[in-house]
User: Fold Phosphoglucomutase from Urbifossiella limnaea.
Amino acid sequence: MDLPASARLGFASVDADSALKDKALVNLITWLTHRDFSGYLPQLQWLVESAKWSVLVDSFYQVMPFGTGGRRGSVGIGPNRMNLWTLGASVQGHCEYLKQRFPGVGPLQVVLAFDVRQFEDKRGVYNRDLPNPVLHLSSREFCQYAAGVYAANGIVAHILPPDSPRYTPTPELSFSIRYLRAHGGLNMTASHNPPDDNGSKFYDERGAQPVPPEDQLMSEFVGRVTNIKHLPWADAVRTGKVKFLEDAPHRAYIELCRRQSLVPPPKRDEMRVVFTPLHGCGWFCAGETLEAQGFAPIQVPEQQTPDGQFPNVTKTPNPEIPECMDRAEAKAKEKNADLVLATDPDADRIGGMASTSPAGGGTFRAITGNEIAALLTHFKLAQLSRSGSLPANPIVVTTEVTTGQITRIGRHFGAQVVADLLVGFKYHADVLWQLESTGRYGDVTGTPDDFVIGTEESHGILATAGIRDKDSACAVLLMAEAALVQKRAGRTLVDYLDDLNRQFGYFRNEVLNIVMTGLEGKQNMAKMLDTLRASPPREIGGLAVTGFEDLRDENGRMGLFKGDTDKAARNFLIFRMAGQGGLAAKVSLRPSGTEPKAKAYLEVSTDPRRAGTTDAEWAALTAAADVQVQKLATAFLATALATVGQTPTPGADKLSR
Assistant:
């Protein structure tokens, strides 16, 4: 029996919509028969002969969606995997989009960046004894292929030289696009995803990822691609359309980060900071910035080398997960350090652990993304206010799912607060662009000079309008300086957080991940959101739902859709609850834009501590908030899974603490 016939019979055994299986078969036959895909034939033949039907259906039932400014997912074979074909189609579409956006402009220019990833098939999907074009494929090679597509389309691509030991982190890419006055950019990274993943993120001329409707227009150009123009790397270089990045943008970027400093630098040995890039490219931004400002970061040698397999990282190279900082914590105890700082592989997010002792060392406490956001918002506003440098119209920007403590902090300092953004720093960048071009964003008025800080719950910070994406370098500098100020007062960052809770109210924020993998998972996720949208629960965890908001409601605050990408981003439900004893609660639900799961964001908060409240009374109130957030998690998970006929597995409602 021939391969297509075998696949047709095999696909019948897969539990999936017949239309999707038919589409998978059509795409598979194309890859089996078209000469452009001949290099993949040995692996495809093996997958068919080995009856890997679920893998094949999932790899071929669609072209990987061009989502929030690009594509991200598992590297592999097929149109629903990251490979040179899916990247090439994206880049070709970007070329066509740039020519439409900048008619008659020449030469068009883009900046390319890449992280440390290299595909080694850790999941064991393919036969290692057969030729495999995607095996060992690195982010650098992806980017060099992209440069060949840009060059073939007459567009100049700025990229690091092949022998460069450096990498261009995400925030430096954003800065470099602006510095070089390029018309766009491409970042090859899967951020903190597992090692077998990779992705492409596209940037506009402002150094930001495009927002609706521009991302919709780009997606449409990508969707219309039928032919990829491409030059081999050596030929692309010979055309002169590939320009190798010099040190000037990098030096200017580091200097910009250093200018965000708010306090005098530490004296020798006054402050001990352990820093780890977790095998990513964070040293080239965050590490260098700390070093330049006199913090002499203590390295974790076994995690210092860029390595896309992240061999010496526990669990995952994601600073949202405290376990990944275990080696750094051990080093901090050994060196009697005050602070641990980490960056994710593309160096746009940070993580931190603070010593609970003013003398350093001893016990360390992980600081959550929401705590980092609140702490740095207060620290920067307080330092600017103290020095008389606070802008006339200070602006603080955050998202709908980031701790509400930030709004209270911002208003305490008289700041205008944007606190209802969708998830993704492209929306923070859009606020800056609206201020830059119109002088206002909604009810907020001002200019980018009034911008103080932008934050998100997932460990992202933006501290300067000179960059238009989250930036670990400025963030680690502010974290180190906040710890330094506390140390000089005989205190710790943990003490600082306790102060914020008393002054602005205790906020317990958690994220509950509802994992739904594969084609069936995608269908279940859509059904879950739609069912809860149509019939929202009246109570969650014993609390009455007093407010429900569906951001897909075109009669709501977000208005009409700006395209399919906007509609997808607004697949977002918010449930608000008022509890007893001064507690308030909120649950927000959305599908992840980069991983096969839905995220439920849980928040339970108290009022600020009132005068006369005893320590025991305050402790009881915060403990009640902790108990309530677990009740929300348990109840909401059961309610959500019931919409697709499932029940939670034991421990699925486990929270961070």
About this structure: The first helix runs from residue 3 to 11. The chain has a mean pLDDT of 95. Residues 180 and 249 are 8 Å apart (CA to CA).
